[in-house]
Write a structure and sequence with these properties.
The protein contains 10 helices and 8 strands. An 8-stranded antiparallel beta sheet has the order 1-6-8-7-3-4-2-5. By secondary structure, it is an alpha+beta fold. The model has no long low-confidence stretch (mean pLDDT 91).
Length: 288
């Protein structure tokens, strides 16, 4: 099953179960025939929102429709769409619609509707993607890491701040100086191997390839031996990196006979000016 088809099946499953308060990311990922981590990550890359955000927006959209089209009590609608108290429902409703449920019932103000997502196949691929396939033995990296919960989008929200921190405190410069491995540059490394799937945790490393004794203030990690698809990126950060991730999932995987291996993924950053239109970077994805 291709990724686009998997996402569409998952969206259909979500829509059929929006009123089920037991709807879980695990059951949605199973509908997509995917692991929780890779489904959540792919969904976010392709749609720019997390799965939980999509569910919340759709439920509040439908709740608003019921408020203006039925006489059901607000407390009953709140419970129907997964809110245990009127207060929690009002808070979430106001955040999305910018008016309260009672104001919506009185038709005071406008509502913000999030419609069902539809994955459409478009003619793409006119702009070539430069990539290569290599097999590489395991290699050591050193750096700093933080652990995030990926179910609620914590990784997407907080990793940019992590990068800001390592630039401010000089860690980024130290890593460039330490780099003595075959992979050149600073690495953004996403790893979930040591966690159980139901923990929904991932480690994100900012690191560099390094052979030798681990320097003070850093930790070490061994990137597993893998067959890698390595994609070249030319353009300013972060947009060029984000755009390439989208193209990988929406164009490259559907057009090639590979699947993700499900292990550690890398982003490789050079010392080019990140604002330069010719800034060079890479994405490394383990494949099978």
């Amino acid at each position: 099953m291709g990724w686009l088809e998997s996402i569409q099946k998952a969206i259909h499953y979500i829509e059929m179960n929006l009123l089920d308060n037991e709807l879980t990311i695990e059951s949605i990922a199973r509908a997509a025939n995917s692991s929780v981590f890779h489904f959540q990550r792919t969904f976010s890359i392709l749609t720019d929102i997390t799965v939980s955000d999509y569910i919340r927006r759709r439920r509040l959209t439908l709740a608003a429709q019921e408020l203006i089209n039925t006489d059901q009590k607000i407390i009953d609608i709140a419970f129907k769409y997964g809110y245990e108290t009127p207060e929690s429902f009002t808070k979430a409703f106001r955040k999305q619609h910018r008016i309260s449920p009672s104001e919506a019932r009185k038709k005071k103000g406008t509502l913000q509707s999030y419609n069902r997502l539809v994955i459409k196949i478009q003619l793409e691929g006119a702009v070539p993607m430069n990539y290569r396939i290599i097999e590489k033995e395991a290699f050591q990296i050193v750096g700093v890491k933080r652990t995030y919960n990926y179910e609620n989008g914590e990784n997407t929200q907080n990793i940019p701040q992590f990068w800001n921190d390592v630039h401010k405190d000089g860690t980024n410069d130290r890593l460039f100086e330490l780099n003595n491995g075959e992979v050149k540059g600073i690495l953004g490394v996403c790893s979930i191997e040591k966690y159980k799937q139901d923990e929904k945790l991932m480690d994100y490393w900012i690191a560099t390839a390094y052979n030798g004794e681990v320097p003070e203030g850093f930790e070490t990690y061994e990137v597993p031996s893998s067959k890698w698809a390595i994609f070249e990126i030319h353009g300013p950060m972060p947009h060029a990196m984000q755009d390439t991730w989208k193209k990988i999932y929406s164009e490259w995987f559907p057009s090639n006979p590979y699947e993700q291996a499900g292990t550690t993924e890398l982003e490789v950053y050079s010392d080019d000016d990140p604002n330069d239109p010719n800034c060079y970077s890479e994405i490394w994805i383990p494949i099978k």
